[in-house]
Write a structure and sequence with these properties.
The chain contains three helices and no strands. With 90 residues, the chain is mainly α.
């Protein structure tokens, strides 16, 4: 029996992807995204080991990006996702 794609299966709920601060690019310029990705990868490769929340450089980079995304959503007049609001704590 052949495997059907999720689109062709009746009564199967579709799974939504979880929100990701890293993948969202609303209101962010190409240069910022390039720089951010480079710094993020460099901190993953050459940075210190994972640390507690406020000391982890990757978490700090994600928090800074989330704040920029929030500003981008507000500048474009869109409602930011609830996950983004929860992540920023605003």
């Amino acid at each position: 029996m052949t495997e059907q794609s999720p689109q062709h299966r009746p009564n199967t709920p579709t799974r939504q992807k979880a929100y990701s601060v890293v993948r969202d690019k609303t209101g962010l310029g190409a240069w910022f995204r390039f720089q951010w990705r480079f710094i993020y990868i460099a901190s993953c490769t050459f940075g210190p080991a994972s640390r507690q929340g406020t000391l982890d450089p990757r978490k700090q980079l994600q928090k800074e990006r989330a704040v920029k995304l929030l500003q981008g959503y507000r500048n474009t007049g869109q409602q930011p996702p609830a996950e983004l609001l929860a992540f920023t704590g605003l």
